[in-house]
Amino acid sequence: MSEQQNTAGQWIQVAAGLKNPSMRRLLGAVLSGQGAPEPASKSERKDLERWASIGLLRHDGSGWALDDELLEKTLASASAAKANRSGIRRFFDGHRLQSLPAKPADRHEVVLYLRNAVIGDGEELREEQLNERLRVFHPDVALLRRYMVDHGLLQRAADGTGYRMGTVS
User: DUF2087 domain spans which residues (predicted)?
Assistant: First the structure.
């Protein structure tokens, strides 16, 4: 996965975290200098660990703080990116998917890019979580999910409640 796709994937997770009220409150407390509540409840610890796994927060000896590395990588990636509209980028306007390609090979590349941006290796997402992340790219999340499953890029749990990365790349 390219550095740019990885950074985009992290920002999808940041957006999903910001949509979660408890995660948003914790991040606000850290950013405002109030810090995370100590001792944090189990759910607060889980939310803080999620922010840390995304790369936005880190825990040092004195508490939780913003990890500037993700911000620096994002800015560097944005400044290095060209306004290149070749390859799959021609189907996007910024990060938003404007249209799905008609050609199966191009469609596969687009949904592969989207899959890599929204789910990591070994990560399993509930359908609501996957929808939340896909909605950043396109409003028709059911269509994107279906293509990802059809192309073998996502595997759906037998009961239909969860998704994980497929074996095809």
Answer: 96-164
Write out the two tokens for 36: 């995370």
- Sign, CA torsion 114/119/122/127: negative
Architecture of domain 84-165: Orthogonal Bundle (1.10)
Domain range summary for the chain, segments of one domain joined by +: 3-73, 84-165
pLDDT confidence of residue 106:
92
Give CA–CA dist 145/153, Å, rounded: 9
Predicted pLDDT of residue 130 = 95
For the chain, residues with pLDDT lower than 70 are: 1-7, 36-39, 78-85, 168-169
Amino acid at 124: E
Angle between helices 141-150 and 127-134 (to 10 degrees): 110
**Kind and range of the H or E run holding 165:** strand 162-165
Query: Torsion angle of alpha carbons 10, 111, 134, 80, nearest 10°?
Result: 40
**3-class SS of residue 63:** strand
Give the N- to C-terminal CA distance of the chain in Å, as an integer.
Answer: 11
- What pLDDT, on the 0 to 100 scale, is given for residue 80? 59
